[in-house]
Design goal:
single chain; about 575 residues; mainly beta; 6-stranded mixed beta sheet; 30 strands; about 10% helix; about 30% strand; globular
């Protein structure tokens, strides 16, 4: 019996059209056209995933050649770098870093770099508060109980997820953790306030405060120096943590944390919707409103945009910390290049949406936001191929999105797209989009995940090739890797492999120090496919005398730094 044919989706029909057009025009012509479009960036617009940089991207000469000799694919249980580069382990899982004995969490993901002098206008590249997301746990390593869901096991897991805030300082050639009263853990037991339309609603069972932040995948930084941590895969804990009081409807939001102020209660921003939040790409629009681009990380899911009602005031940090409590959420329709408003009072499609049994899907705005995915589909949002990270080009203002893969439709390799808002206005209602790069053997990469730009406008990307043993990627790709892409000139969209991760690991959350001399990257889930502690697939990051692999940050050095 022959297998059923893979069914193309509406998105794949759109992709075919764009790829045919791209081939006809030539990728170099498209890149050149994009490079010639003018853009005036707000003074508050930052490169580096929302973090600061010591140079202005608008005032430096683009450098489109990789600053390294690319490395070939590999499958070693090591972090492989080009000649001339080195790395240091930093903040590995289990390391005690607070005065009260708290440990760094498990499975590092997004990294935020907040210079210690940031609130005074500084951009220190050698002394910072790092925020580290901890996405999920592996019971084989955390707690050690893979069979019984005991209270002790559940407690260990709940304390190993969330976010770590940790001060680090470069001393000589090494980075070190520095004791600081702001060092702390925000985990699945931390009290967090709900803000926005869903606060106190039936959708969240009347809650105004909830317990914990989990599924912390990627994120973003705000110009006023707070972290946006994104809650992605949260539903599975209902069973895994049964009896703990865990409520999945209290998770799946964007949570704002102030690394500089431990007394400020973290806030879940319900106005930004509930779905599998991968990222939060933050920027300031021409009129001063905040804009945040977000992806729903699952197959056949959508891309969203949040626009605040209030305006950013560089002189009023206290007011800025409330900006994301109120605003409008939109979903992208790639069929006609438009943003569709997800507002119950202003969009009749949401009022008229019905389930299969004829019952109304939504009764109010809280319902719309609490199931943003259903809301998006009800108004014509375009389901795409696992939208993961989204970042904004620091020179052109174009928005780049990594679409990892979609096995439902035979797409194991993924692609990176880019779109430009009408009038170069991030609050615009319409946009034009193109395909930037397509994964596969012909391009050498697959399953793009997290992205970070450098000030020259080059894109650095890490991959997420899950379950390599059952798809056609491993033969040419090897372990998950990090790639460099020029976005302008004749080599735009061509992948150059910079680094290769250890066995079973992803590299996640890349962020630069403001001077560009250090690249921080998370090494997530090394040895994840280990059958037991006696049959480990990786020992990366293990303590001396141990073979247990540890998720960790690495600080990669050898870069010359940004040059005007």
């Amino acid at each position: 019996m022959s297998p059923s044919p893979v069914q193309p989706s509406f998105w794949h029909r759109l992709l075919d059209t764009r790829l045919t057009r791209r081939g006809a025009l030539g990728s170099a012509a498209l890149a050149t056209a994009a490079a010639t479009l003018p853009l005036t960036l707000s003074d508050a617009q930052a490169v580096n995933n929302g973090g600061p940089a010591t140079v202005d991207p608008q005032k430096i000469t683009p450098r489109s050649l990789p600053p390294f000799r690319p490395v070939p694919a590999g499958q070693a249980d090591a972090l492989t770098l080009p000649q001339g580069y080195r790395y240091q382990l930093l903040t590995p899982w289990g390391e005690v870093f607070t005065a009260d004995g708290r440990e760094i969490g498990f499975n590092h993901d997004y990294i935020g770099f907040f210079p210690v002098d940031m609130l005074g206008g500084g951009t220190s590249s050698t002394d910072a508060l790092l925020t580290i997301n901890h996405e999920y746990v592996n019971a084989l390593f955390v707690g050690g109980d893979t069979k019984e869901r005991t209270k002790a096991q559940i407690d260990a897991e709940m304390r190993a997820v969330g976010v770590s805030v940790v001060r680090v300082r470069r001393e000589g050639r090494e980075w070190r953790v520095v004791p600081d009263e702001r060092n702390r853990r925000i985990d699945a037991l931390t009290e967090i306030e709900l803000t926005g339309p869903a606060r106190g609603s039936a959708a969240v069972k009347g809650a105004t405060t909830v317990r914990g932040t989990v599924g912390n995948c990627s994120g973003g930084q705000t110009p006023w120096g707070t972290l946006l941590t994104c809650e992605e895969n949260v539903d599975g804990y209902t069973k895994a943590w049964a009896g703990s009081g865990y409520d999945a409807m209290h998770q799946g939001w964007v949570t704002e944390i102030d690394p500089f102020d431990p007394a400020w209660m973290p806030k879940k921003r319900t106005a930004m919707g509930r779905f599998r939040h991968e990222n939060a790409a933050v920027t300031v629009a021409k009129d001063g409103r905040m804009v945040v681009y977000m992806g729903d990380d699952m197959q056949d899911a959508c891309i969203y945009k949040f626009v605040s009602r209030g305006k950013y005031d560089p002189a009023n940090r206290a007011a800025n910390r409330d900006l994301l409590a109120d605003g409008d959420l939109y979903v992208a329709n790639f069929g006609n290049g438009s943003w569709v408003l997800l507002d119950y009072a202003r969009n009749k499609k949401l009022q008229e949406a019905r389930a299969a049994d004829g019952k109304a899907l939504f009764a109010n705005q809280a319902d719309v936001l609490a199931d943003a995915r259903a809301s998006a589909l009800a108004v014509g949002g375009t389901p795409v191929d696992r939208p993961e990270d989204i970042e904004i080009h620091p020179r052109t203002g174009e928005v780049y999105a990594a679409l990892t893969n979609n096995a439902k439709h035979g797409n194991y390799f993924g692609q990176i797209i880019k779109f430009r808002e009408t009038g170069d206005d991030w609050t615009a209602q319409t946009f034009l989009w193109e395909v930037f790069a397509v994964g596969g053997p012909q391009s050498g990469f697959a399953s793009p995940d997290n992205l970070v730009f450098d000030p020259y406008g080059n894109l650095w990307m890490v991959t997420d090739n899950s379950d390599l043993s059952t798809n056609p990627i491993k033969a040419y790709h090897g372990n998950n890797a990090m790639f460099f892409f020029a976005t302008e000139g004749p080599n735009a969209g061509k992948a150059h492999r910079f680094a290769i991760g250890p066995v079973d690991a992803e590299m996640t959350g890349p962020v630069w120090s403001p001077d560009g001399k250090t690249l921080f990257v998370s090494i997530q889930h090394p040895g994840e496919d280990s059958e037991s502690l006696d049959k480990l697939t990786s020992t990366f990051g293990a303590k001396p005398g141990s073979r247990i692999p540890r998720p960790t940050l690495v600080a990669i050095e050898g870069f010359p730094g940004w040059r005007a």
